[in-house]
Specification:
The complex is a heterodimer of chains A (124) and B (291).
Chain A lengths: L2 E6 L17 E5 L6 E5 L10 H11 L2 E5 L5 H9 L3 E3 L7 H9 L19
Helix pairs in contact in A: 1-2
Chain B lengths: L1 E5 L7 H11 L4 E5 L7 H5 L2 E15 L9 H5 L5 E4 L2 E4 L9 H5 L5 E16 L3 E8 L7 H13 L6 E5 L6 H7 L4 E6 L3 H14 L6 E8 L5 H9 L3 E6 L2 H8 L4 H4 L1 H17 L3 H6 L1
Parallel strand pairs in B: 1-8, 1-9, 2-7, 2-8, 9-10, 10-11
Antiparallel strand pairs in B: 3-6, 4-5, 6-7
Helix pairs in contact in B: 1-11
The chains are: A alpha/beta (124), B alpha/beta (291).
């Protein structure tokens, strides 16, 4: 199974999912079979005036991620992730990283067909 | 004289001042509405529009068959307007600032100039004697300075050699406001004697000061109790060239789309006085030659 990236506030499987994709503090890149993980820092995107979602999508591509689990995804990030074939599970912001991965592996996360936020995180 | 009428705060009366000044101006005049996000000078000057054109800016177009995904373009772009991920290249045209850098650095000539529509430039004549230009930003377009530059370029293509120019600037202190005052040789700040008016007036004065252009002030809605603007102007040697009273007659004329200096004789005198004051403050042609 391809690696799962979960937007995360820190390098902790039991820490909360960061609700933001583009401006997430970082990503837990998890092997869902072993629950082994790497933490990928994304803090620099929080200071970008624009393009944070695209920046984060590039990061996903570089780490060979197949699935992104997060809270909100904006239109440009959605377009970029879709273009490179990364699946997106959203509205997972009230879970821990571990719970989000388990929910996905149990088939309880619907793959998103569109963004759920406007640009700059503005509610769509 | 190229005069820019600007303000920090919105709604202080820039367009009211531009329209009334234009009406009493006694030399050839070109009036330019550079508040392209919400142009409204035409509502008062009611120009006959003679022509319009769509303005656009250069953004990259991708020929994916030539792309080797070397990332030179994506690494150069400061705005994430072009992205390379594995063997996928994506452009985000509305993020592009049109610098052309990606097209210049592409070693495979996979990028060529495409375009993004910015909005519309239109021009005409008001009152049979005022050259008129305006820009109107496309709904959804985020960047107004490129369209403002297209309007200015259009003014330059239709030269009226002896004409003075009055620019109606957008409010604020950021790129659009700065771009509107850059072509001018004199800035007129319109403010109102309220705490908000004074706060944003001061920001505008500080933002424009490094441009080194002479500045003067009109106080609109004058007669309110706050003296902060007057005190600040006196301490900074900023000339206050006119005061427009806080008066119901003016508000009624404005709300009917009337030009104050046309509708009200006392306002005609006020704006003629303002015109004379501006000429006294403007750098003379001789100064410009020497500079």
């Amino acid at each position: 199974m391809r690696k799962i990236a979960v937007s995360s506030e820190g390098p902790d499987l039991d820490g909360p999912v960061d609700p933001r994709f583009g401006r997430a503090a970082g990503f837990m890149v998890v092997d869902p079979e072993t629950m082994a993980f790497d933490y990928v820092e994304n803090g620099a995107s929080q200071t970008m005036t624009q393009g944070a979602g695209i920046h984060a999508a590039e990061l996903m591509a570089r780490h060979g991620v197949g699935v992104v689990l997060t809270g909100y995804v904006g239109p440009k990030a959605f377009h970029a992730l879709s273009a490179i074939g990364i699946k997106i599970g959203k509205n997972l912001e009230n879970l821990s990283v571990r719970q989000a991965v388990e929910k996905y592996t149990h088939g309880q996360v619907t793959v998103a067909e569109g963004p759920n936020r406007g640009a700059h995180g503005v509610p769509a | 004289m190229i005069l820019a009428v600007a303000s920090g705060k919105g709604g202080t009366g820039k367009t009211t001042v531009v329209a009334s000044l234009a009406w009493v101006w006694d030399r050839p005049l070109t009036a330019v509405d550079l508040d392209v996000e919400e142009p409204n000078l035409h509502l008062f000057l009611k120009p006959q529009i003679a022509g319009r054109e769509t303005a656009s800016m250069e953004v990259p177009a991708v020929d994916a068959s030539r792309c080797t995904y070397c990332r030179a373009c994506a690494d150069l772009c400061q705005f994430k307007a072009i992205s390379v991920m594995g063997s996928v290249i994506l452009t985000f045209p509305d993020m592009c600032h049109g610098c052309g850098g990606c097209i210049a650095v592409c070693p495979e000539k996979a990028l060529t100039p495409g375009s993004r529509e910015l909005g519309e430039v239109s021009w005409g004549t008001a009152a049979g004697r005022i050259n008129f230009f305006m820009g109107r930003l496309r709904v959804g377009e985020a960047m107004s300075p490129p369209l403002m530059r297209a309007v200015i370029a259009r003014v330059g293509q239709r030269p009226a050699p002896e004409s003075d120019v009055i620019i109606d600037a957008p409010p604020g202190t950021s790129c659009p406001a700065i771009n509107a005052v850059l072509p001018s040789d004199l800035i007129l700040l319109v403010t109102e004697p309220t705490p908000f008016g004074f706060h944003d007036f001061r920001l505008a004065h500080e933002a424009f000061a490094p441009l080194g252009k002479p500045m003067a002030v009109v106080i609109n809605r004058a007669g309110l109790a706050d003296r902060s603007v007057q005190n600040y102007c006196h301490s900074r040697h900023l000339p206050i060239l006119a005061e427009i009273p806080f008066d119901r007659r003016l508000a009624e004329a404005y709300s009917n789309g009337q030009v104050l200096s046309e509708a009200l004789p006392d306002m005609r005198a006020t704006f003629r006085g303002l015109m004379a004051g501006l000429r006294a403050v403007a750098p003379s042609t001789q100064d410009k030659v020497n500079a």
